[in-house]
Structure formats: C-alpha cells, structure tokens
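Q: I'm teaching a short session on how sequence maps to structure, and I want students to see two examples side by side rather than one. Could you give me a first protein with its sequence written out and its structure tokens following it? Keep the formatting plain so it prints cleanly on a handout.
A: Of course. Example one:
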Amino acid sequence: MSSAAQGLRRTGSARRQPARPAWRERPKPATQAAKAVALAAVVLLVTVPFLIIVSTSFASNAEVVANGGWVLWPQHPTLNAYRELFDGGIVTHALWVSAGVTVIGTAASLACTIGLAYALSRRDVFGGKPILLLILFTFLFPPGMIPGFLLIKGLHLLNSYGSLVAPVLVNVFNLVVLRGFFQSVPEELYEAARLDGAGEWLILRRIVLPLSKAALAVVGLFYAVSYWNAWFYASIYLDSDHWPLQQVLRTYVVGGSQLADSAAGDASAVAAPQTIQMAVLVVATVPILLVYPFLQKYFTKGVLTGAVKS
C-alpha cells in the first residue's frame, strides 16, 4: 500500500474519533468572562449588604440622617451604638445566655446524637429498626406547637433555659448523617477491636470517633448555628429577663423597640435607632463568622459524609 493511501486511512480514522467531552474542553473567553461577571455579581450581593450593616453601626447620627438611614462608608466613625448596647446590660446578658445555651446545647446534642447514631448503626442491636422508623416518623410528621408546649410544661421547664435545648436535643437529619458515616466504617475494624477485647464504648471512643472528625465538625456546626440563631422557643417559653440574643435582636429590629437602659444626658452620645439595630446585627453575626474558618477544612469533606457509603 502506498504512503498516500496510508495517510488517507489515518486521516479518516482520526476524523471518526469521538469528540472530547464538554467538561474537558477549554472554556472560551466569552464563557470565562460571563462566569467572572456572574461571580462578581454574587460577591457584591453578599458583601455590600453586610458592609452597609457594619458601616451603619459605626456611623454618626448626622450621617445616618443625611443618608436616609443607611451608610455605605462612615466619614466620622463612632462607637456610640456599641457603648449603648453593652452599657445598658440587656444585650450583654442576652449574649451570655446565647453563648451558654449554644455551648451546652451543642455538647448535649452531640453526645445524644453520637450515642443514638452509633447504636442504630450496629446490625445486632435489639429493636434498632423499629426505633429508627419511629425517629424517621417524627421527622416526617413533627409535633405541633401545642403538644410541645404541654410537654415543656409537664417537665416543669417553663421559664428555664432547658426549654431551649430539650425540644431540639436530637436533630433527625444530623442523626441520619452520623449513622450513615458510622455504617461506612469498615467492619473489619470493629471485628479486630472485638478480638482484642474492646467493648462498644472503647470501640466508639478509640476507633469510631477519631475517624469521624469531619462528620462531627459538620454536625456540631449545624447544631451550634441552630442554637445560636434560635429565637422562637424563647418567645414561647421564656420571659423577657431570660431572652437570648436572637430574641432581643428580633425585638429591636423587627419590633422597633429601644433599649430600656439607654444613655441619658448628652443627646450627641445617644446613637440613632438605625445604628443600634445594625450594631445588634453585627454582635449576633460575628461569633459564627469567627468560628466557621476553623471548621472550614472539615466542612467540605464532611458535608456529604453519610450520604454515600464507601
């Protein structure tokens, strides 16, 4: 066969090869530009409102009035709003309440969720399937407000901080995630530990929990954010002297209430209502923003943990 014929055959076979998948092709400049514009728009939609909240909390009364209640960049920043918040005592007390409920509630929820998820992940546990079905039933058909109130009243938890933890002690979604992760741990590890004489408690503490750091970080973050942002149960079960920060925030921002112990005397030292509201928003948001970076490395790995079994 001549070289010309071989060249034609190679050319024909090359043309018959399937095209590369779309996700392996290099994006066109127009596509890259469109993605950059879309990403920039999303970033602006997220950062600009937060910047306005922070800037307004530091703005002076004259700047708030001149800009119609919102300040993008204060020319004369002041801490009057934050002084008024923490000098009054209401927000300080509410902040301690939220911190305590978040820390204690997250620890209690993690302990209960880990124990229940580990028990339900074992095949030989007595009554595992019926208990799991009952738990999933509560997820599909949650109780209403009146049964929950009657339960809290029957447990004598009205006007106590236990009423903020007891109704949400175990979240079904978090339980299912942890159960799925515990089931994905190789069975050979459990068998090897049992051959060495380890009991279930030792297996959970020495083997399962060290392998579950990513899942525990994600579930713990979910619980912490839930407890920190909770305000509904506080409005039902607690009086105003025991309110957490989020309920105080809702009262100031939504209800338009003012601080009861506001600074008196010099009118220039009293912050405008808008700066008070924005300062409360900043105080309520910053703690979660400070905690999240330390858990970010676990979040991406653990957010899908339990959804796919290895």
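Q: Perfect. Now a second example for contrast.
A: Example two:
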Amino acid sequence: MKRLFTILSALLLTLSACAQKHNYVIGFYNLENLFDIYDDPAKNDEEFLPDGKNNWTQAKYEKKLYNMAHVIRAMKEDNGAYHTILGVSEIENRLVLEDLVSEPEIADADYQIVHYDGPDRRGVDVALLYRPDQFTYLDSESIPFTFEGSKVAITLSEEEQDYFRTRDILMVHGLIEGEHFAFYVAHLPSRIGGKGSDLRSRGGEIIYNHSLQMESKYPGIKIVVMGDMNDNPTDESMAVWMRGKEKLEDVGPEDFFSPFTRMLADGFGSLAYQGEWNIYDIILVNHNLAKAPQGGLQIRKLHKKGYYGRVFKKPFMTNQSGQYKDTPFRTFSNGAFIGGYSDHYPTYIAISK
C-alpha cells in the first residue's frame, strides 16, 4: 500500500507539473492588403480609396478588420490563449494595426505593435503584434533589403538594383520568461512580374547574416524567423541561404529547423495557386530553440503525427463551392469584393519548457 501511495503521489506531481507548463504560441499571418481608406501621397494606395479601383469604402474596411480579428480570435479559441507573438504582412501603416488590435473580438489580448514605415513601392509593410504580459520588448530594427556584400548571384543590373524597392525585414528583440528572443518578420519579393529566385535568396541571406550577429551579441539567444517568403521551405532561399533543415536531428549549431518542410511534403498548404498547394508562410527556429537544454523554452509538437507546425484552416476561411472550392476565401476575387478573409492561411508554432 505504501508503495502504491508513493507511485500515485509521483504521478500526481508529474501531472501537476505538466498542467503548469505554459505554451507560447508564435505565428504569422498575411492579412492580404489591409489598407485604410485615406490617401497617402507617399504610398501607392490609389486602388484602396473610396473612388479607387476597389471602391474601398469604410464599410469594406470595417468588414476586413472584423474578418482579420475573427481569425485571430478563432486561433485563440483553438489554442486556449492568444498568440504571444503574431507577425503580419501586407499592412499599409500603423493606423490599420491600431484599428485591428482595438477590434472587440481581440481587444482583451492587449496587443502591442512594432512597426516601421518601409520603402515598398506598393505601400505595404510587415509588423509584429505581441502580448506585453508574456513578452518583454527590448529593442527592434528595420533591416533594409540591399545588395551590398551579397554572395548570391544577382541577375539585376546595378541600375536595376538601385531602383529596386521591397519590404524591409523587421527584427524584434525581447524576453520570454527571462530568455532572450529575436523575432524576424519578412515578406520577401514576389514572383509576380518575373522576379527571380535570386531576390528571395538574397532576402534569406540578409536574415541569416543578421541572426548570426544576434547570436554573437547574445549567446544562447533563441531566434524565430517568420514570413511570407514567396518560396516554399524546400526552395533555395530557405533550404540553402537560411540553412533550413527538415529533421530536428539534422539541425546543427549554425542551422535552422524548418517544421513546414515535412508538412509541405505531406500535402499541407497555406495558399493555393493554379491548383497547387504551397507553404510560403514559413516559420523557422534556430538551434538554440530547436534543441534547447532541459528546462529551457523549446519548440513543441502540435500534432499526433509529430508535426511541429500548424496551418490554421477553418471552413469559414475557405471557399465552400465554385471554381475556387477548398482554397482560402479571400477579400477580392477577379477584381470584385467578396468579403472574405485572406488568400493565405496563417501558420504557427508553439514553444514551452
């Protein structure tokens, strides 16, 4: 009887410790053209004005805000808590983020904003939302997309390089449970208009080189890279220049773990193009987070099949019929406002001790 009591006590202590383990959700969402209705002479926002091509009215803007907040709330309901960190892309300015985090469905998350106005010619930026009760903000940087010192074989001429403009890469540095973290949020150059893979490889090179600087400055720092990379995790930008590895056991001290590589091979996708699924909404973690020592924050499995990532897909976010059945229910289709959510599904990971 005494032995049985000892075993039961040990089991209860183990269960108690598991219950107290805190999961932090870290994710990314391409919000698909979250523009306000006001003309900004410094940005190419003419299509998103009340008298513009998209007849972007206050009512449409409010519908878009509601939809984005509804997805964030739905992820909270699924996970039991709001994201600690949520990177976003395709946002026009800080105002749209202030409006978004004030939406009634998610206002209780008290999301704080890190955003810089960038040089993108289309007028869209990346940003990061964080919960101040879980993440202590220390500093941030808007990293410009340049070609200086690149080892990538760039196909653009020097004149074309001087003219080229795209989104800056956002780096946010802070603490979770006293541990140093750096979060990178990117929206790498599009494939539209014949833009070459070398541009996205250069984006990967910029992020990777900066991450090495952070690791040198803060030994042991845990790094998460996220964004719409306009590439799959198997493409050169992610697999070569970001050193993304599919298997956890293959991740060395200078590598990143790429949880969505296996998921792509198994048929998952965050967006569909011409009938083919892709995962452009990628999240990678460095060695320090992938293989943290016992007692430290570490990436955790999210699925019974052993996946470390999740593509968040719900019926309300998905076309239920028609030509685009089973693909993301987006804001516009063939130039017409259809009141959907985004042409991308959000992705996320979870970390805990």
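Q: What should students look for in example two?
A: Point them to this: DSSP finds eight helices and 18 strands in the chain. Also worth mentioning: The two ends are 34 Å apart (CA to CA).
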